[in-house]
Q: What sequence folds into this?
């Protein structure tokens, strides 16, 4: 199995992604076309979870199909072991790696989710997770549902970008910097950075319901997918253990508020999340034992954040229930 702990001490994420974009004008050779592309995700992955949430909030289900990899992978690739015969029913491939190699025969970097695949050619288009969700908001507007929220409003983009960048470096990636640290010094530094950022977020969210403006934006989506994994995985497995999320009242209430908002909690599969981290990271957890806890019932308790005002979807409306075939299995979420 692959090794995840950084032998050199400090973990540094490889951020060299496939930057091809799917745009309304097709300037990279891939125009937005309903039915042409397939979004490949894994519910276990926080980066993929962002794409699942944004696709659902914007109502892109009819325009962009979705394929789910299983919660674990080997050294070579994410696999479609949830599908009959272990083959994606649309792309007809057993491994996401096949779509990468179809476009780049010598591709040597990590096979990551989310990825968008061009169905007619079977070739990966992009795995640039940060740009994917922004493009859903800005390039796919012709196929948004009626009442879709504006997750990336023009007037707030500079602030959203600034907040999201700090969340990415200090929180989204910060938990990994703790978990994959290869020395005590690197871990201590990463731990301090992470909790300094969580303290900053606590202060920011103490008197405002959402991170930027008075509605849900891209920034909230990006923070949520780390917070929802914090107690099940990061607190213990990655040693991010100054506090549990449930011991940080402001962030715990904020996370519950989002979890109980349609499009957020109904995308979260706690069983797959735990299976992924505890089974795949064998150098951290060599027994591959998946813990039974924590108790998840608290996610559905009242959060009281409505008192801060705000309008979750702005002038829009909540999405409807998840589509058949896209629902989190019973018993895999809270409640």
A:
């Amino acid at each position: 199995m692959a090794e995840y702990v950084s032998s050199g001490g400090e973990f540094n994420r490889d951020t060299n992604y496939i930057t091809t974009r799917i745009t309304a004008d097709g300037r990279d050779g891939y125009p937005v076309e309903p039915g042409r592309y397939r979004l490949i995700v894994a519910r276990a992955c926080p980066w993929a979870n962002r794409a699942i949430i944004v696709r659902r909030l914007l109502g892109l289900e009819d325009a962009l199909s979705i394929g789910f990899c299983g919660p674990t992978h080997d050294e070579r690739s994410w696999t479609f072991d949830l599908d009959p015969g272990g083959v994606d029913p649309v792309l007809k491939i057993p491994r996401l790696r096949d779509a990468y190699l179809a476009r780049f025969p010598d591709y040597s970097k990590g096979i990551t989710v989310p990825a968008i695949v061009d169905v007619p050619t079977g070739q990966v288009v992009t795995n640039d997770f940060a740009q994917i969700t922004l493009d859903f908001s800005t390039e796919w507007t012709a196929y948004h549902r009626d009442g879709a929220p504006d997750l990336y409003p023009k007037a707030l983009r500079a602030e959203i970008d600034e907040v999201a960048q700090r969340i990415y470096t200090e929180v989204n990636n910060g938990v990994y910097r703790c978990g994959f640290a290869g020395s005590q010094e690197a871990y201590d530094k990463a731990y301090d950075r992470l909790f300094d950022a969580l303290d900053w977020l606590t202060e920011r969210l103490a008197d405002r319901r959402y991170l930027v403006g008075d509605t849900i934006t891209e920034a909230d989506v990006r923070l949520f997918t780390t917070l929802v994994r914090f107690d099940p995985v990061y607190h213990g497995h990655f040693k991010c253990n100054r506090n549990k999320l449930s011991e940080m009242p402001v962030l715990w209430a904020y996370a519950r508020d989002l979890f109980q908002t349609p499009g957020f909690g109904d995308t979260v599969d706690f069983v797959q999340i735990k299976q992924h981290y505890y089974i795949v990271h064998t150098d951290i957890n060599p027994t591959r034992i998946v813990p039974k806890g924590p108790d998840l019932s608290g996610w559905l308790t009242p959060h009281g954040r409505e008192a801060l005002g705000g309008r979750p979807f702005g002038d829009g409306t909540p999405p409807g229930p998840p589509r058949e075939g896209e629902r989190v299995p019973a018993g895999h979420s809270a409640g």
In short: The mean pLDDT is 96.
